[in-house]
Amino acid sequence: MFADRTPDLTTDLAALEDQARAALAPEALGYVVPSAGSGATARANREAFDRWRIVPRVLRSGARRDLTCDVLGTSMPAPLLIAPMGVQTLAHPDGELATVRAAAALGVPYVHSTQAAHSFEQIAEAGGDAPRWYQLYWPTDREVCLSFLERAKATGFSTLVLTLDTPMLGWRPADLNRGFLPFLRNVGIANYLTDPAFLAKLDKPVEEDPGAAALHWAKMFPNPGLSWADLPFLREHWDGPILLKGISAAEDARLAADHGMDGVVVSNHGGRQVDGAIGALDALPAVADAVGDRIAVLFDSGVRTGADTFKALALGARAVLLGRPVLYGLALAGQEGVDHVLRCLLAELDLTLALSGYVSHRGLSRESLACAQRSAP
Ligand SMILES: Cc1cc2nc3c(=O)[nH]c(=O)nc-3n(C[C@H](O)[C@H](O)[C@H](O)COP(=O)(O)O)c2cc1C
Ligand SMILES: CCCCC(=O)C(=O)O
């Protein structure tokens, strides 16, 4: 499955998915690539990018460009982060370790998923001093939640991303048909299996009864009871910036700002949760209008190219999170593959800015784009 080879990776990141399909085992393929239900949301994500077109400008002295930026106190070489994605060992045995190493080498912030196949401590060791954020899936057990926050702080994660579009898993036919859920095999619950508060609740050591550990995780992962009233608890126990991820409605973004959050990530989880949801890029302008001057607005879902990144930034995102393409690079060539994906995206973004007449993403606005009409069916 993970042949020892250095494949010729395409520089067309949108086409990388096709290359990666061949490198992924069937179960991994069924988990990573597909979306919820009929796939309507994932299609809407891509259609929204196709509808917006860049309007290039000329003769604007663009010889020197600067993509660097600061988002909520984190410096980055470009407005780009790696989206939190769990269970990365499904793509490659090195999993998140390869991803964080590639990210660290370039200074691109890595966002560590609660559902990672490697623990906070392993990621901190592999990632060194490079910027790292932590994505929280808030478990129903508050002791375990607090323990996660403490470990994230102790291991150098600066910023918290609370994901809210996954109070339980969406209807994902590719997984349901295969009956495959990695977590029930204790894959993707490394943060739990190394957590003292979690381990203390098990009747037997994990080695003696791994199934019981997985079931215990399964009891505390779905947390549909969370509400806005719970946010002060998080604010009280996390000193750094907090962003809410999985926001599509402008009103939710306003509520996030009203509740003292530092930012939102406009995202529909890459179409993996609600089938038939609004395309993420279609949701972005209203959110940016509602709160863009109060809190940081970040974006993910459907970003595949430098031009896509340009469009999201022009529509009000302060930075963009890259999702599946990272896993495709990882599946094809481990750390080298992730490095390839990040470098391609950064280079293509720089080139798109240059060719469109911008020296920095800071000059982008809605004027940089035009909305193309849908062609008649
Ligand atoms: C395999 C996989 C695992 C994911 N795991 C998480 C996760 O643990 N936490 C989270 O907040 N989002 C998770 N996501 C969603 C991503 O953070 C991001 O929102 C999404 O991948 C963006 O869409 P894109 O892949 O189409 O670019 C996951 C996505 C994939 C593909
Ligand atoms: C239990 C959460 C699973 C990780 C995730 O967010 C995803 O598969 O989309």
From TrEMBL:
- Give start and end of each FMN hydroxy acid dehydrogenase domain: 5-374
Query: Which stretch is the leader sequence?
Result: none
Which PROSITE patterns does the record match to this protein?
A: FMN_HYDROXY_ACID_DH_1, FMN_HYDROXY_ACID_DH_2
Keywords from UniProt, A to Z, are: Oxidoreductase
Which cofactor(s) does the record list? FMN
Q: Which Pfam families match?
A: FMN_dh
> Family, per the entry?
Belongs to the FMN-dependent alpha-hydroxy acid dehydrogenase family.
User: By what name is this protein known?
Assistant: Lactate 2-monooxygenase
**From which organism does this entry originate?**
Kitasatospora herbaricolor
